[in-house]
Amino acid sequence: MAKNLIEELDLSKFAEEVSAAYPSKVAKKRTKSIVINDPDSIPQIQANVRTIPGIITQRGCTYAGCKGVVLGPTRDIVNITHGPIGCGYYSWLTRRNQTRADKPEMDNFIPYAFSTDMQDSNIVFGGEEKLKQAIREAHELFHPKGIAIFSTCPVGLIGDDVHRVARQMKEELPGVNIFGFSCEGYRGVSQSAGHHIANNGLYKNLIGNNDNYVRKNKYAINVLGEYNIGGDAFVIDELFKKIGVDIIATMSGNSTLEQFETAHNADFSLVMCHRSINYVAEMLETSFGIPWAKANFIGAEATAKTLRKVGQYFGDQELKDRIEVVIAEEMEAVKVAAEKAKTKTTGKTVMMFVGGSRAHHYQELFNELGMETLVAGYEFGHRDDYEGRRVMPSIKIDADSRNIEEITVVPDPTRFKPRKSEEELAYLKEAFDIEFNEYKGMMTDMKKGTLVIDDLSHFEMEKLIEMYKPDVFCAGIKEKYVVQKMGIPMKQLHNYDSGGPYAAFAGAINFYKDIEMIACSSIFKQMKAPWEREEFVTAEYVFN
Amino acid sequence: MLLRHTTAKEIDRKALTINPAKTCQPVGAMYAALGIHGCLPHSHGSQGCCSYHRSALSRHFREPIMAGTSSFSEGSSVFGGSANLLQSIETMFTVYKPEIIAVHTTCLSETIGDDLTQIISKANEDGLVPEGKQVIYCNTPSYVGTHVTGYSNQVAAMVKFFSTATPKKRNVVNLVTGWMEPSDMREIKRLASVMEARTIMFPDMTDVLDAPLDGHYKMYPAGGTTSKDLTLTGDSKFTLGLGHSCTEDACIKLENKCKVKFEMLDIPIGFKATDRFLMSLSRHANVPIPDSLSDERGRLIDLISDSSKYLYGKRVALWGDPDTLIPLVEFLLSMDMKPVYVVTGTPSKYFQERMTELLKDIPEAKFMNGDMADMFRMHQWIKQEGVDLLIGNTYGKYIARDENTPLVRFGFPIADRPGHNYFAKTGYDGGANLVKQIMDAFLEQMDKTCLEEKFEFQL
Known about the structure:
Structural class of chain B: alpha/beta
CATH superfamily of the largest domain in chain B: Nitrogenase molybdenum iron protein domain
Oligomer: heterodimer
Distance between the termini of chain A: 59 Å
Largest interface: A-B, 92 and 84 residues
Shape of chain A: globular
Number of helices of chain B: 17
Low-confidence stretches of chain B: none
Radius of gyration of chain B: 23 Å
C-alpha cells in the first residue's frame, strides 16, 4: 500500500514545479540538489555546495559547526569566542547538550558564555592583546584545565592569529591546555566546515595526550558523533553499562577533556553522526589502529543491531549473551509502546530536513511507527552522507573545501596497534556484514520514488507542504512556526522540542509517544471558527 | 549548582565578557524591520548571522521569522560582497516577492568595507528592483553598540528612506516604538485609540509577531507599518519617541528631514511613565484623556495597594536594555521596592544619568552599563548580598535556581515560557499584569518554602 502512495503522489513533479518560480540560474543550480531516489541505482545529488545568496536557507556557519556543535558539549573547557558579542551569545545554551558533572567540585562551564566582545578599536588595531588578557582573566577566575578559542568572521579578516596567541598563553600559563580554532563563519558553505576544523583541532591538541585509561570492563569503545541532545548519550551510557562495555569517549555529548585525551585507548569506535565526526574516526584508525563502524541508536531495531555489532566485533560469547538479554528485556516495553502508538500513526506520512545524519537515522523510528518518509534531506550533508562513502574519491574539491586545513595523519610510532588484523576484519565483514570505515548513506535506505533534497529552501518547503500535505514535518526552530501556521504538526529534530532522549530503547519509547501526541493533536482541528466553517449555516430572522 | 564557578569575589576584568547582558546589532535591525509591512529583512554577511538571528527571534516569539542572507564565502570576504548582495536582491524579489527588502550589515561586511549605498544604487540601475518596490538599508557593525543600536539604526533608516514632508500637514502624532513586545505595542495603540488620537506607529510588530494560527502561512502577515504610512510620518504634526536608545536617533532625523518636532519619553511601563505618555499624547494630539483611562489607572493603584505589604522594601536585581530598565526601575520604586542591582550591556550615558537620579535614595544600589556590565558581574553582586526578586530574560533562570530566588521574565530573549508577546507590560493594564507576575512569583515561592504551620489559606 505504501509503495502505491509514493507512486500516487508522483514526487517527480516537484523539481519542475519549483524551478519554474526561480530565476533561471537559480533553477539550474537547485534542480541538481533535488533528486528522485532509486536505492538500486543511487542517483548523484549535488550537496555541500554554496547556498545561492538570497535563498532562505536552513544553514548556519562554520563557527556554529565548530564551537556550537562539536566543542560546545564538553563541560570542562572554557570556550572563549573571539569576536563581537553576537556569536558567543547565540551559541550560549541554545543547543540542548545535557551534561552531568556529578560532584560540585567538578568543572562545568556549559551554562556560561565567554567572549572577548571585540569593539571597533580591536577591529582597527587588532584583538590579540585583548584575547590574551581574556585568557588570563578566565584562568584567574576559573582555573580550567583547558581553554579553547573560537574565531569569528572579523578575526580572520583583520589577521589576528589565534594559534599564536594560544601557544604564547600556554607558555605563560603552564599546565593549561590552550588551543585555537580558525572557524570563521565565512569558511566553507555550512556548519560542516566547522565540524572538520573542530575534528582537526581535537586530533592536534587533545587526542592521544593521555595513555592512562583504567578499564572497568574488558572491552572499551568510543561513541563518536553523539552530542547528548535531550540526554541521548545518557541512555546510550546506561545501555553499555548494562552490557558491560566501557565507553571511553563520547564525542562530544556529556564529555570532558580527559575523554578526548584518552580516546585512543579504545578497541573500537562507533560513529553516530557521520558528517560531523568521520574525520576523527578516521584519524583514530590511521594513527592508533582503531577500526570504526557506522552505528545507529535511533530506533529500537537499529539499537539492537548496533549492540549486536559490538558483540560480534569482540566475538565474546558472554558479551553476546548479555547483549541478547538486554535486547530481550528492553524490547518488551518497546513493543507495547510501539503497538499503542501505531494505532494512531500507521500510514501517516513524514518529511524531514535536518542535520547531516538525523534525516537518515530518524527514518528508522518513523518506520517503526508505520509511517512513510516521503521526502528527506540534509542541511549540511555531503554527497557521501547521501550516496555512501564509495563516491568520496569522485567528489571534486572546490574552493570552499580547500580553505579547510588538511592535516597529515600518520600511524603513531609507538602506539599504533591494529585492534583487528586484516583477516579478522575480513571475517567480520563476511560473517556478520559489519562494514568497517564505511557509511552507505541515506539513499540506500529510502524507497524508490521518494524525493531527496539537499539544503532545502524556505520556498521549497512551502511548496512541498502545499503539494504533498505531509502528516508530520521535521526540521528546526526556523521552520517550526512556518509549518505550524499551515496547520501541519512539526517536530524539531535538532532540539526535539525540549523532549527526548530519543536514542536507544528508552528513547524510542519517548519518540513513539511524542509522535503519537503530535499526530493526534486536537488543536489543529480548531483553526477555523465555527462561523468560518463551510458546514456552518447562519440563521436569519424572517420578517413577515 | 548550575553556575558553580561564580563567586562573590570580583576581579578587575578588562577583556573577558561573561554571560552578556546584550547581543549584537544585526538582530535588532532584523527585529525592527519585521515591523514594516511586507518587508523581508536581509542580512549582508555569513549565513550563520542570519541563522542565529532568525533562531533567536523564533525561540522568543514562537512565530515565523523570515530573512535572507548574502551567504558570504571566503571569496566574497576577500573580493567584497557586492555580487552576493545583487544576486540576493534579484533572487528575493523573484522568489519571495516582498514589497520592501531591508538590508543590514554584519561585522563581516563592515570589516571588509562593503558600501551599501553604492551596491544598492547599482541594484536599482540594473533593474533588479521591480517597479514600486524598494530596498532600504542600514549599517549595523556588530563590534559597535549592541542589539539596541541595531534596532535604532533600522528605525532611523525608516525615516531616511520613507518619511517625506509635503505642504499638507496632518493632525497625526507619530509613535516611534522602542524594543518591546507586539503586545506592548498593541496596548499603546489601544490607549491612543481610546483617546481618539490619530497616530502612526512605527515600527509596528502587532499582527506580525503575534499572528493567528488559521491554517494559512503568510510570509508577509497583515501587520507592520505600511510604506504609505511611513511616508506620511513626514507630514505628522508631532513625534513621540518611546525609549531613548532605540528611537531618539530616528526622531532627530525626522525633525531634520521633515521638521516634525518630537519629545522623548520612556516606554510607558508602570503608572508614572504611562501618565507621562498619556499627558504628552493628549497635549500633542489635542485630545482629552477620558475617564475610562483614569479608571484603568485607579485599578492598577488599587492592585498595588492590595499587594503593598509584600512589595515594600523588596530587593530586586534587573538586567536588560536601558529603554525598559529605566521605566521598570521607576515602577518598582513607585511601589516602594528596592531595585538594588541594575545591569545593561548596552553602553548608555542616559541610562547612567537616569539611574543616578532614580536611585539616589537607595545608597546600596549598584548599576552599570556597557563594557563588562554582564550577568556574571550581577550574579557576583547577588553572591555578595542576595536579592528577593530577579527581573530579566530567560538567562536569569540559572541564577534564580542557584540562589533560590524568584524570577519574573522580562525582556529578550524569553525562550522558556510562551505568551509574553500576548500579554502587555505597557500601560496601566500592563502594569497590573506585571504586578500580578511579581506577586505570583513571591507568593508561589513563599507557599513552596514556608514551614507547614506558616502555610496559610489567606494571604
